[in-house]
Amino acid sequence: MKRFHAAVRRKAPFFAPALLLAATLLLAACNAPQPGPDILAPTEEQTKLRSFQSRTLEVADRQVALRAVMAVLQDLGFIIERANEQLGLVTAARFAEPNFNDLVAVTVTVRAVDAGHMLVRANAVHNNRPVVDPETYQRFFAALERSLFLTKG
Amino acid sequence: MVRTGALLLLCLAACMQPYEGRHEGQWNAMDQVWMSEQSQVRLRAAQSRVFDTTDRMRLLTAIVDTLQDLGFMIGVLDEELGIVAAKRFDALEGGLIYDPNYHLYDSNSLMLFSRTYLSWGPFYHRDDVVRVTVTVRKRNEGQSVVRASAQYYMHAVEDPEPYQRFFRALEQAMFLEAHRFEEPTGGR
């Protein structure tokens, strides 16, 4: 027993900082995360994403553009949750392939740029995580352009 | 040595589970009413800005665009009342270990929701939802007041800085300068 105490005393200088560190870590884990000043400010990543998510289309009528957006979302298997003509907003959701275990939700806005053009912006989330792959948006806009062409035709 | 050990034991006793330690227990829901830590007037001033327009649709459109820029998904939208509510998931409670259920969580119904598996959620995912409500109301014949209020980690955001940055982004979307909001004096 005496030998054990002596060993502990000898190693005490090493134990004490380790214990203090553990205590600090435990205390830190108790603190609730605080909101940073940037929680409501766009990050650089979001600004970059914005360019992938936007496309200007050659349509004069906003209602035509909105109808095309809804038609495309329906083509892609989405269920329209909300469509607001005045604000040019459509939200939709669907179960994601291949297992249909995950959810994909999308918000699309349509804004007039000038007399003959509309700016369409889409942002999607996959199970609460933003979709950041530019190709997904490219495919959506390709389908939208096709749909507009079909409506015109 | 003994003192350090005692301190460690105290820490362990004080917060056996870090999750519990990060939340205060409320035995009475009435406590929620008094949760605001800031002066109401100061908070309202920080959360509000005056815009020199009465075009509610223009303001609402810019708000929706700004929220979209910030990665929020629009939840509630009423152009007659002038209200927009949106939410975003910030992985605050995610931890180091990947939880496969984590991203299946539906924050509205507090449920895990998928075609093959349906269960009540792990409630701690509620902490990760960042919510924002923005309201627009007419102030006088030429001005409107926009007020934003945010919730982070289930607590109201009372620091003025995030709101300042939000309104800066909104000003850019509107191409319009916002003024500080001051309560009209001599009123009720």
What is the topological layout?
The complex is a heterodimer of chains A (153) and B (188).
Chain A: H1 2-30, H2 44-53, E1 54-57, H3 62-75, E2 79-84, E3 89-96, E4 102-114, E5 117-126, E6 129-130, H4 134-152
Antiparallel strand pairs in A: 1-5, 2-3, 3-4, 4-5, 5-6
Chain B: H1 2-14, H2 18-21, H3 40-47, E1 48-51, H4 56-69, E2 73-78, E3 83-89, E4 105-106, E5 111-113, E6 118-120, E7 129-138, E8 144-152, E9 155-156, H5 160-174, E10 178-180
Helix pairs in contact in B: 4-5
Could you please describe the fold and organization of this structure?
The complex is a heterodimer of chains A (153) and B (188). Chain A is of the alpha+beta class and 153 residues long. Chain A folds into two domains: 1-32; 44-152, Kinase associated domain 1, KA1 (TATA-Binding Protein, 2-Layer Sandwich). Chain A contains four helices and six strands. Chain A has helices at 2-30, 44-53, 62-75, 134-152, and strands at 54-57, 79-84, 89-96, 102-114, 117-126, 129-130. In chain A, helix 3 (62-75) packs across helix 4. Chain A is elongated, with a radius of gyration of 27 Å. With 188 residues, chain B is of the alpha+beta class. Chain B has one domain: Kinase associated domain 1, KA1 (TATA-Binding Protein, 2-Layer Sandwich), CATH 3.30.310. Chain B has helices at residues 2-14, 18-21, 40-47, 56-69, 160-174, and strands spanning 48-51, 73-78, 83-89, 105-106, 111-113, 118-120, 129-138, 144-152, 155-156, 178-180. In chain B, the strands form two sheets. In chain B, strands 1, 2, 3, 7, 8, 9 and 10 form a seven-stranded antiparallel β-sheet that branches. A three-stranded antiparallel β-sheet of chain B has the order 4-5-6, with no helix packed on it. In chain B, helix 4 (56-69) packs across helix 5. Chain B is elongated and about 70 Å long. The model of chain B has no long low-confidence stretch (mean pLDDT 77).
